[in-house]
Design a protein that fits this description.
There is one protein chain. With 86 residues, the chain is of the alpha/beta class. The chain is built from 3 helices and 3 strands, in the order βαβαβα. Strands 1-2-3 form a 3-stranded parallel β-sheet, with helices on both faces. α1 packs parallel to α2 (44-54). The radius of gyration is 12 Å and the shape is globular.
Length: 86
């Protein structure tokens, strides 16, 4: 079974790296992380990309969200996690 962590994100540049790093400390790490950047106006996407570049041991993908809130962002992330593209 593949375990994916789907994280909706909007303007979380100050905290998103800490969250991603916490996933590394879990007893059962996810097999992949999908961060859905739900139209952030800060550096959230850049922070996630920087984190992913420095932690290749845990695959992390960022996808663009629909900008319609948390539920839509989560659904976007689930669809991305289930797709063969990630």
């Amino acid at each position: 079974m593949v375990v994916a962590a789907v994280i909706p994100c909007r303007n979380e540049a100050a905290t998103i790296a800490r969250l991603l790093t916490a996933l590394l400390a879990q007893q059962r790490r996810p097999d992949r992380i999908v961060v859905v950047d739900d139209r952030s106006t800060d550096r959230s996407a850049a922070v996630v990309q920087d984190w992913a570049n420095t932690h290749p041991e845990l695959p992390c993908t960022i996808v663009a969200g629909p900008g319609r809130g948390v539920a839509a962002a989560v659904n976007t992330g689930i669809a991305a996690a289930e797709s063969a593209d990630i």
